[in-house]
Amino acid sequence: MAFLADSLSRVKPSPTIAATTKAAELKAEGRDIIGLGAGEPDFDTPDHIKEAAKAAMDAGKTKYTPADGIPELKKAICAKMKRDNDLDYKPNQVSVGTGGKQILYNALVATLNPGDEVLIPAPYWVSYPDMVLLAGGEPRFIEAPLETGFKITAEQLDAAITPKTKWFIFNSPSNPTGAGYTRDELKALTDVLMKHPHVWVMTDDMYEHIVYAPFEFVTPAQVEPGLYDRTLTCNGVSKAYAMTGWRIGYAAGPVELINAMRKVQSQSTSNPSSISQWAALAALEGPQDYIDTSRVAFQRRRDLVVSMLNDAQGITCPTPEGAFYVYPNIAGCIGKTAPSGKLIKTDEDFTLELLEAEGVSAVFGAAFGLSPNFRVSYATSDENLKEACTRIQRFCAKLV
Ligand SMILES: Cc1ncc(COP(=O)(O)O)c(C=O)c1O
């Protein structure tokens, strides 16, 4: 009898974490490494949020809370959903968990039976397929290529739906591409979903606030109110308020689903950190100026990176609508030989050789389900980005 669970053999460790770890090892050996792998803002959590956490500790808010969140935070999440998304939710329709990651995982564990299919546009955030597999479901991918701006079409969605489809996972702006669906593009998808009442929508709105004008963020239940009863709108404070380490994510949706998610959470981790919940409350209810300040910096960096990468031989880099990633295509580099003498056959070869030759660490596209590409996170200083892009240009110029 095998000791480890069979379900674990279907799952791979996170490649983004592997890339970050490899870069940290080389750095520790004294190499000059620039990391473009981070999936988190490089800014500090705003002071008023930290103060709220300190005040919570001083006030003794250090005990267990209700398993899926304190009522104050749930109320603030309802207000946020109304303010930003024009969606009406009551506190009993809200679940708070340890990061957006736990929320998504709870929902999958609470709903998937063997054979249930989950539609995931590719490229995708690395955790979606593995979370589906861990929860016993079957990920099914819909390719979103460079030619359509890394977005799927209504026809593709329609063709991918089967009687076994339980969820459609939607992520806009996307990790890893930064691609964002306009209202019209999203409406075309929601029109398809209206024809298939057995399919539920799990929308991951984590990058809602990191979007660049003229693009405007919209979420499925807002664009198509007819989907409200089968949509789980997921979000969190990690990216919007530079709070990745605090581990607070949340979702709003139908009561039956929220109750099922609470059951999963109450028998696994119980409540997310009480102190972090009070900090998240301050983030949602307090001044929102951090969002604009960080957006200005991210937009400047996006423009810098897109322009410098498009000047690198063999690279095509579209301009994304949001998030803090670009997903350049490297078709022009495949089949060439690196300075080490190694032939670059895949995007993984490309990122490995880039790290060896120039000390720039990024994640290869195969990890996100679309090749040949790589993901650059521009959540690092302008100085680092200029130097990293100069090194990438030099690396590409040396490929023969
Ligand atoms: C698309 C997407 N969803 C969810 C998450 C998870 O966020 P959290 O840190 O709140 O668990 C991430 C984090 O990288 C992400 O990129």
From TrEMBL:
<dbReference type="InterPro" id="IPR015421">
    <property type="entry name" value="PyrdxlP-dep_Trfase_major"/>
</dbReference>
<keyword id="KW-0032">Aminotransferase</keyword>
<dbReference type="GO" id="GO:0030170">
    <property type="term" value="F:pyridoxal phosphate binding"/>
</dbReference>
<dbReference type="GO" id="GO:0006520">
    <property type="term" value="P:amino acid metabolic process"/>
</dbReference>
<keyword id="KW-0808">Transferase</keyword>
<dbReference type="GO" id="GO:0004069">
    <property type="term" value="F:L-aspartate:2-oxoglutarate aminotransferase activity"/>
</dbReference>
<comment type="similarity">
    <text>Belongs to the class-I pyridoxal-phosphate-dependent aminotransferase family.</text>
</comment>
<dbReference type="InterPro" id="IPR050596">
    <property type="entry name" value="AspAT/PAT-like"/>
</dbReference>
<comment type="subunit">
    <text>Homodimer.</text>
</comment>
<keyword id="KW-0663">Pyridoxal phosphate</keyword>
<dbReference type="InterPro" id="IPR015424">
    <property type="entry name" value="PyrdxlP-dep_Trfase"/>
</dbReference>
<feature type="domain" description="Aminotransferase class I/classII large">
    <location>
        <begin position="32"/>
        <end position="392"/>
    </location>
</feature>
<protein>
    <recommendedName>
        <fullName>Aminotransferase</fullName>
        <ecNumber>2.6.1.-</ecNumber>
    </recommendedName>
</protein>
<dbReference type="InterPro" id="IPR004839">
    <property type="entry name" value="Aminotransferase_I/II_large"/>
</dbReference>
<dbReference type="InterPro" id="IPR004838">
    <property type="entry name" value="NHTrfase_class1_PyrdxlP-BS"/>
</dbReference>
<dbReference type="Pfam" id="PF00155">
    <property type="entry name" value="Aminotran_1_2"/>
</dbReference>
<dbReference type="InterPro" id="IPR015422">
    <property type="entry name" value="PyrdxlP-dep_Trfase_small"/>
</dbReference>
